[in-house]
User: Fold these one by one.
Assistant:
Number 1:
Amino acid sequence: MPPAGSRVRRDEIVRLATTTGLTSVDELSRGFGVSPSTIRRDLARLTAEGRMARTYGGAMALVAHPEASLRQRTGEAFEAKRAIARWAAARIATGETILLDGGTTVRALAHELRDATTLTVATTGLPALEELADAEGVRVECLGGTLRPVSQSFVGPFTEAALEHLTFDRLFLGTDGVAAGFGICEADLRQTRLKELMARRARRVYVLAHAAKVGRRPFHAWARLPGDWTLVTDDTADPAAVAALRDEGVEVVTVSAADGPPA
């Protein structure tokens, strides 16, 4: 096997896991012509990206539902995300302090806020920071911590500690899935713990999720949001999944991808 660049090598490791199964670190090291420590770093990176998972005993395997990267998700349901973002932006009043999660729909909301005035935005997501970095009327607070490369958002004890010093008028969360009886779904327990903590610091909580995520349960880490919260989705969401959430007391707002008004 010829030497390969780091990204190509990691892609090939995933391919091997899919086809022939992974061998030992030493055998991968010899096959790729790199050191065992390099292979271990590759495996750690693949784990952080949600493409591999450690099993009992330290072995590696493909995750049942690989977590898509932020770049992969950017083009999904573009019009629906934009309509959801416009509805959410219309709820925000001048002078408020809001908290933005990570994710592509929340990024779309951050983009809508670029021309806001007298607004304070705290965020755990790099995409929102990028959108608002040069917004003159917006004061931006970054809740730093440990960066998850696959989601481009911060998690961990430093992020959680920063939350203890702030409260918010509104919180806007992203999610990988939302389902009645479970709450909101993520690939990592650090994410779900953080979302629960964020929800406790905000007066109003909104979950922004396009239709494909409603009723979806791709991972096994869940956040149960305290108190009342609002799901904002688009009008192609599964009616049965929407009805089940409403039966639990969740306010569900559906917008049209064409123009964004509430249904």
Note: The longest strand covers residues 202-208.
Number 2:
Amino acid sequence: MALLPFKAWHVAPRIAAGALILNSGLDKRDPDPETAAALHGMAATAYPPVRSVDPQSFVGSLSKGEVALGAALLTPLVPTGVAAAALTAFSAGLLGLYARVPGMREEGSVKPTQQGLTVAKDVWLLGIGAGLLTDVLLRRRAERADD
């Protein structure tokens, strides 16, 4: 039985992703109305149910979610599988913005526009989440095979 719920190599990617996401969440606390409207508008374009949520409330919830995810990634006692699943889902949502919001990609291409580059680069978060999750699932599979 392991003393900690993660492997040593999990530390660096968890810190990198966790620190960035935590900072992003903290930066979104109490946004000005223009920023809230812009973030809400982009999210509502990609995910139409968001339209029914007040922009300030949406950004407040987004901020709290990012702070919680960042903290989970940075907290060693949170198992990697839990943190990785949350990171994978969060980053898939970010890439959904990239895929669905007009102007993020060059016409007929997956290549980002200058505007889309800020979201497209978040593919590395998906890579970290998927890599960590894959490691945890393969390790569990191997442990079951040994039983």
Note: Helices lie at 11-27, 33-46, 55-74, 80-100, 114-120, 123-146.
